[in-house]
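Box 3.1 — From sequence to structure: Fatty-acid oxidation protein subunit alpha
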Amino acid sequence: MDMTMKTVQEFLGPEPMTGIDGERGRHWIRHEDGDRLWLVLDRQEVSTNTFNEEVFRELNALLAHAEQENWKAIVFRSAKYSGFAAGADLSQFRGVEPSAELDARIAEANAVIDRIAALKATTIAVVHGTCVGGGLELALACDRIVARDDAKFGFPEVLVGLHPGLGGTARLTHRIQPIEAMTLMLTGKTVDARKGRSLGFVDAVVPERDVGKAVDEAVAGRMERRGGGRTGDALNLYPARKAAAYQMRNETEKRAPAEHYPAPQALIDLWEKHGGSEADMLKAERQSFAQLLPLPVTQNLIRAFFLREKLKGNGKGKSGIAHVHVVGAGTMGAEIGAWCALKGMRVTIEDPQVASLGRAVAGAHKLINRKLHGPEALHARDRFIPDTNGVGLRHADLVIEAAPEKPELKRSIYARLEKEVRADTIIATNTSSLDLAALFEGLAKPDRFVGIHFFNPVSKLDLVEVVRHDGVDEEVYSKALRFVADIGKLPLPVKAAPGFLVNRALMPYLGEALLMIDEGEQPERIDAAAEAFGMPVGPVELADQVGLDICLAVADSLAESLERPMPPVPQWLREKVQAGQLGRKTGKGLYDYDSDNKPKKDKVKQAPDKAMRDRMLLPMLDAVASTLEAGVVPDADSADAAMIFGTGFAPFRGGPMHYAKERGYADVAATMEKLVLVHGPRFTPSRWWQRAHD
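Predicted structure (token representation):
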């Protein structure tokens, strides 16, 4: 090979791979270094390593060859800048059905990992960046794990309806304290390298310059295995497992009901029944994994993963935006600015009220301190700059207006902005429902005006609607999409229309819930009906979270601008808003709130029924269909992604349009026709259903 000669330690590290002295296969590089063999993963045509059958078969051949040689150590590493490995390539799991072939594929992949665990040579995983799922399972099969200080570990399988399936459940619960291991797997959270070391599965944490020294220590037998001696932990004995499993089930059921999310309970069962023996648990894990994978719930959660990737793809490439100026330091403006500062951008936030700026700074510091630590947090706090006089406008690459939903006020702000910002500065509005064409009327350069609509709370909801109008410059619009991706959010392209997508879909859902309360229905029962369907919170609690003032403003706006009728707004809602009872943010709304800002709910007096659920949910589905009819969103998959990541629509159902398809478009339309007879013409189904059915 005509390559620059480098050692593996020099070659891998902070910079992406450019060449190495070794034998390159398609996905693996085999490098001989004295009495050590380095197997370096570099899956072709992707930026992040993932595992599929081809990767495992090539590795299996390398291991078979290595077994015939006399290596003192075999070291596994990655050539990718992004990290070690991000687990399985989920595309190979889509559409699978129970079969002997599926069982054989799972067994074949496990045989490769088991082969690593059985090697006579000392095995070492040198990990940097991302090491999750199957990547962590490969590392756990090694004798030692050496982590670079930027490494992140975790088992996110539970988020796609699975649990680890390459021996991770058995090896982790026998390598570290089993309750800690189960917690890591049940939550799907990642931990950094130092936390991994304190838990016991990481044996050393070093900077890149000391990786070679750490490998030497491991090969010489001078590196103590952090998790050593824990395999006989009393917590893996059956009485302790049984007691702990009981508590885990109760806690898990609160967060993820087994009816909708079977994987966490399957994992608990697996450990309770087989945790006393690593060999038994390895065998049972494969059977459990094979049973979970074809379930509709799992397939829909895997679908949700790819829907997220679809949204990410809307913002490929860097925006070049470094300075964001936010106009308005209310709740939304402050959160938008804080999030941008957290993600590395310089933020100036403008408001005429010094008190509002003070609250914004306090809120930003609280968010930043929760997410970052040490110098990173300090730098992020420094990037969030209160600006009473709008000085930051002259330097901003992007201005986001987050003023109250009053068209006259917004238009006056834009007129001022045009005079003060650079010629290439993008001007964006965070309006949730106002007509963009009316807002930019009178601007000299409407082509640089765009909608960037965040959702509350900004720090928790990933979706951002990026709203185009007929006169927008295509590069401006593309740059806005890329900006959203730059700050770690999911950009959804939408066409300017009343309510865009999410609010247009949510308001009929919330409106019907309010009418049910008006008819005397118990709010807790209404919420229970939606939660039984799989919504994270019911519509009554959601309205309080959004803010009753916001709900009222959007409802009135949509009632005025949409041709089809909306649910009428009860007079008592207007009175609540006028009295300042706006929901969670004021401590009183449709519910009263305790000192922890949690709603005070009574017990549900009567179990909810399917009719209640359909009355609330079908108008939501129909509103999504109407946006497809009007071309507000590009396609049904984009709409499903938006509703999952913007509203929390039950992800295990694959999104509202996917649910409608599985239920049957004709059934949705027919049920709505029945609701017309009971509740009136607002339930008249969209024409989209008929065309989709045809």
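Summary of the box: Confidence is low (pLDDT under 50) at residues 1-19, 228-232.
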